[in-house]
Amino acid sequence: MSTPTLPPLNARALGLALLITLIWGVNFIVIKWSVSGAPPLLVAALRFAVAAVPAVFFVPRPQMPARLLWAYGLTVGVIQFGLLYLAIQLGMSAGLGSLLMQMQAFFTALLAARFLGERVQPWQVAGITLAFAGMAVIGALSGGDLTVISLGLTLVAAFGWAVSNLLVRASGRANMFSLVVWSALIPPIPLTLLAGLTNGWDAVGRTLTHSGPGFWAAMLFMGLGNTVLGFGVWAALIQRHGAARVAPLSLLVPVFGLIASALAYHEAFPPGKAIGAALVFTGLVLHVFGRRWWRTTLQPA
Predict the structure, then answer these.
(1) Is the pTM value of this prediction over 0.85?
(2) Residue 194 within any structural domain of the chain
(3) Rounded CA gap, 244 and 103, in Å?
């Protein structure tokens, strides 16, 4: 049985993909602004609560085992986004955070090799090596504006994203949009409890009762725009045009994130961070596009 040919990206589809990557990139400065005056774990909890309700009443439950749904919700909600929000409050810049979260691509390849028996290809090894070299440069030369704990939390958050990618693989043909909406029901309670334990219940109460319209607009942007709309449109584009055409466009997320952070927060890149960021991004490009380059230039005839 032949595989149906998927249509290439037309102008409308490309425009939608660019819009979603822009939303995802800008989201990092929205996170930075929202956690500046509120418990970061509570902000993450509210983001998922907005993503889940009321959408969960109109979206069918994903066809997958409950244990995988719970594992995905906890991995994405508590580890990936909970730790990312905490890292940004502790000093991780919005622009650099948007780039370092893409380390998930390398962690995913390594986890797939360990647990699924997938072979790490030569171009992936080269990309991983460059990216981790960039991480070492960032950690060693970036100076006091980037704390070790914020860097470590961001990398653990990226690792959580990679684990969630393997959970998606294990879920089979579950609808991704349904998975995003229903899994969003899971993180709010543990994140809120952790926020109360770490920041105090007074801080949680003040945030919920005294936050202004700007804060709640940020929650709507993160919950509806970034999560429901973003993942919904992205999943639809992949279904219609194929992952091979759509997924590489996610490389634009850190580009938009770095630009947005520079415009909003005048984020400066001293030589240490600039060199490290360039190495990480080069490694990511090689990881995504290296197959074609390897076959045409290095692979023996």
Answers:
(1) yes
(2) yes
(3) 19
